[in-house]
């Protein structure tokens, strides 16, 4: 259980770093846990009149999948991805 918590924390840190990018960082990244490829998908959507940020993370090597939603600041490039 503790290993999963550490892995999840590392993947969440990766997501936070990607959200700070000025432009779309793309979908495929280096996994900070196993060194393999991790896919990170961002989307913006509206629920009950609130704009929310959705994030999906999946690493085949780690066999870990995360899905997160939040109401924090949404980068412009995420809004652009969600309207394509």
Description:
The longest helix is centred in the first third of the chain and has 18 residues, at 2-19. Helix content is 31%, strand content 37%. Strands 1-2-3-4 form a four-stranded antiparallel β-sheet. It has a single domain (2-83), classed as 2-Layer Sandwich (Double Stranded RNA Binding Domain), CATH 3.30.160. The model has no long low-confidence stretch (mean pLDDT 90). It has 84 residues and is α+β, with helices and mostly antiparallel strands. The relative contact order is 0.21. It has two helices and four strands, in the order αββββα.
List keywords for this structure.
single chain; 84 residues; alpha+beta; Double Stranded RNA Binding Domain; four-stranded antiparallel sheet; 2 helices; 4 strands
Write the layout of secondary structure elements.
Layout: H1 2-19, E1 28-30, E2 37-47, E3 50-59, E4 64-70, H2 76-83
Antiparallel strand pairs: 1-2, 2-3, 3-4
Largest sheet: 4 strands, antiparallel
Highest-level CATH class:
Alpha Beta
- CA gyration radius, whole angstroms: 13 Å
The low-confidence runs, each spanning 5 or more residues with pLDDT under 50, are none
CATH topology: Double Stranded RNA Binding Domain
Count of extended strands: 4
Principal-axes geometry comes out as globular
Strand order of the largest sheet: 1-2-3-4
CATH architecture: 2-Layer Sandwich
Distance between the termini: 38 Å
Overall number of structural domains? 1
* Series of H and E elements: HEEEEH
Q: What portion of residues is helical?
A: 25-40%
Our estimate of the beta-strand percent is 35-45%
Q: Total number of helical segments?
A: 2
């Amino acid at each position: 259980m503790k290993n999963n918590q550490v892995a999840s924390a590392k993947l969440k840190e990766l997501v936070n770093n990607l959200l700070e990018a000025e432009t779309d960082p793309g979908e495929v990244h280096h996994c900070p846990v196993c060194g393999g490829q991790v896919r990170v998908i961002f989307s913006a959507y509206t629920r009950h009149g609130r704009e929310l940020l959705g994030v999906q993370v999946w690493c085949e090597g780690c066999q870990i999948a995360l899905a997160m939603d939040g109401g924090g600041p949404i980068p412009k490039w995420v809004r652009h991805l969600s309207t394509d």
